[in-house]
Design goal:
48% of the residues are buried. The protein has a five-stranded parallel beta sheet, with helices on both faces. A five-stranded parallel beta sheet has the order 17-16-18-19-20, sandwiched between helices. A four-stranded antiparallel beta sheet has the order 1-5-6-7, with no helix packed on it. With 450 residues, it is an alpha/beta fold. Helix 7 links the parallel strand 14 and strand 15. The longest helix has 22 residues. The structure holds fructose -6-phosphate (F6R).
Length: 450
């Protein structure tokens, strides 16, 4: 607000949506997102809900809900300005897909401890006592972040032995919260501003749970309200469809699993060291997976006119199927569904005919043979099969119309690789169909309303 009586004074207030002040040289900037001020300054002051700030040429003052002056910290943005430019890429989504070898590396950087086979997560703020007392983990998130949570359930149960529940934040917040001692709530959010996820953590805290955030945007509301957390350090994600944040969320969940698994002695040193070594090799494997792009571009040409698509997977790759279907529908407007592969025979199999492309997630893992028999069921009904499988796996040409092979890696890590062909497929189909890839209709990057 600018008052006529004093046009040198600007008054801003935070209510509902995020708000920050950029502190420049001889200027102040007000924005809802740090990326908007990055070209002018790296120093930002995040306002809390209910804060009012008064800006004049002499400086700024922040008043809290009670109208008393507040000291709000000036944060330094560590984002690189280049991340806000398209460079040689046609769209931010493609740029962000291609950045994944680096962004996965940034999520891991400085956190792996080879000798102890563990992860150092200083920001988590969980003492050894806290870690020992955890009896139940509840993961909350929305959309792509919820899919990462489903992958996280497999990872955390496997590495820590703790039972995990995964909840849509929007559903969880309106249910009765049971006070279960020893509950740790894990909120996953790229933006750190999603209204439903924010309210879910408030509800969890009111029921006595500790809350940790897996968040990308430093200083965002969820990051500040959580008791601790793991920043993704994936850099700003501009494309509305989330890509690099998803792979970094899975890597952060692997780090959390490694840390808790070692602290609780569910994972011995040797197993921890093996996982550390596998995580260290992940950025290179992501880079190799990106070399599949020409194949996915060609597949997109063949399937750009599809009206429906089915994505099927099992275990950690069931949520990848959901994520592949979400990517396709949100940017290309093709109706797509993700399903656990074995559930298909309980209904969706009725949809399969010669017009239905079916994307199978079939990496080499403990359910590989079962997935092949699900593929057989689709083939017998004339569906077109695109199989995302692993290099060195047997020949699938007798079953699949197309084979896309990602590098081999331990099954628990495979979602980081298998999702990349699905991101590229959705991207190239949307481009073929002339869609506005970075700004799909009806969608916003941060959903700050419920
Ligand atoms: C899909 C997508 C959304 C977000 C969801 C949660 O590509 O981006 O489904 O994942 O709105 O957003 P965050 O992670 O910011 O809480």
């Amino acid at each position: 607000m600018i008052s006529d009586a004093d046009p040198q004074k600007i008054v801003v207030a935070r209510r509902g949506s995020p708000l920050l002040i950029g502190v420049g040289v001889g200027e102040y900037l007000v924005a809802s997102d740090a990326s908007a001020v990055l070209a002018h300054t790296r120093s930002v002051v995040y306002l809390d809900e209910g804060d009012v700030a008064v800006l004049t040429p002499e400086g700024y003052r922040v008043l809290g809900r009670d109208a008393r002056p507040q000291d709000r910290l000036v944060d330094d943005l560590d984002w690189d300005l280049d991340t806000l430019a398209l460079g040689s890429h046609a769209h931010f989504m493609l740029k962000e897909i291609c950045e994944q070898p680096e962004t996965v590396g940034h999520t891991l950087r400085g956190r792996l401890v080879g000798v102890d086979g563990t992860a150092r997560l200083n920001g988590l703020n969980l003492s050894p006592g806290h870690c020992a007392r955890i009896r139940r983990i509840v993961i909350v998130g929305c959309g792509t972040s919820w899919h990462a949570g489903l992958v996280g359930r497999c990872i955390l149960e496997e590495l820590t032995g703790i039972p995990v529940e995964v909840e849509y934040a929007s559903e969880y917040r309106y249910r009765r919260q049971l006070r279960v001692p020893g509950t740790l709530t894990v909120a996953i959010s790229q933006s750190g501003e999603t209204a439903d996820t924010l309210e879910a953590i408030r509800a969890a805290r009111a029921a006595g749970s500790m809350v940790v955030g897996l968040v990308n945007v430093v200083g965002s509301t969820i990051a500040r309200e959580a008791d601790g957390g793991i920043y993704l350090h994936a850099g700003p994600e501009i494309g509305v469809a989330s890509t690099k944040a998803f792979t970094s969320q899975i890597v952060a969940l692997l780090l959390l699993g490694l840390h808790l698994g070692r602290r609780r002695e569910q994972l011995d040193v040797e197993d921890g060291q093996r996982l550390v070594a596998a995580l260290r090799s992940l950025p290179d494997l992501v880079a190799r997976t990106l070399q599949l792009e020409p194949q996915l571009r060609e597949l997109a040409r063949q399937y750009a006119d599809a009206r429906n698509a089915l994505y099927l997977g099992r275990g950690v790759n069931f949520p990848v199927a959901l994520e592949g279907a979400l990517k396709l529908k949100e940017i290309s407007y093709i109706h797509a569904e993700g399903y656990p592969a074995a559930e298909m025979k309980h209904g969706p199999i009725a949809l399969i005919d010669e017009h239905m492309p079916v994307v199978f997630l079939a990496p080499k893992d403990q359910v590989y043979a079962k997935t092949l028999s699900n593929m057989q069921e689709v083939k017998a009904r004339g569906g077109h099969i695109i199989a995302i499988t692993t290099e060195g796996n047997g020949d699938l040409r007798h079953l699949a119309d197309h084979e896309v092979r990602v590098p081999a890696c331990p099954p628990l890590l495979s979602a980081v690789l298998t999702v990349i062909p699905l991101q590229l497929l959705a991207y190239h189909i949307a481009v073929q169909r002339g869609c506005d890839v970075d700004r799909p209709r009806n969608l916003a990057k941060s959903v700050t309303v419920e």
